[in-house]
Predict the 3D structure of the following.
Amino acid sequence: MKRIVVAVDRSESSLRAVDIAADVANKYDAELVLLTVVHQPTTPDPALEAYARMEHLKDPPEGMALEAVRDGLADIGERARAKGAKRVSVDVFVGDVAAEILAYAEGVRPDLIVMGSRGHGRLAGLLLGSVVQKVIGLTACPVLVVH
């Protein structure tokens, strides 16, 4: 096992998934990728746009926002290291959560995807379209669901 991807959204279940994934990464000396997906904001943040103009930054505010999300996962990376993961990286994408996880898995081909389950149950998952159910049903790699 060389690469483990764990989906992180800062929920309690995703933090439990990070703990389990870090333990597995430690046992197999695998890279642990913290993957998070954010929704594209419908309106740009005026404060970020003003800051970018004042500082003559070439990166668009959306890029700055993604960097802020990436930096905001530093504590979760430290949590994973404390649980034994030696190599931890972070990837942040914008879009539909399930679609982005599936696209990432297809491109990177991890050995395992670890996800937390919010515990809404099968009926709610069917009605609401659970991200976990979509990933399990459409990915080619094993998925470990942490309750």
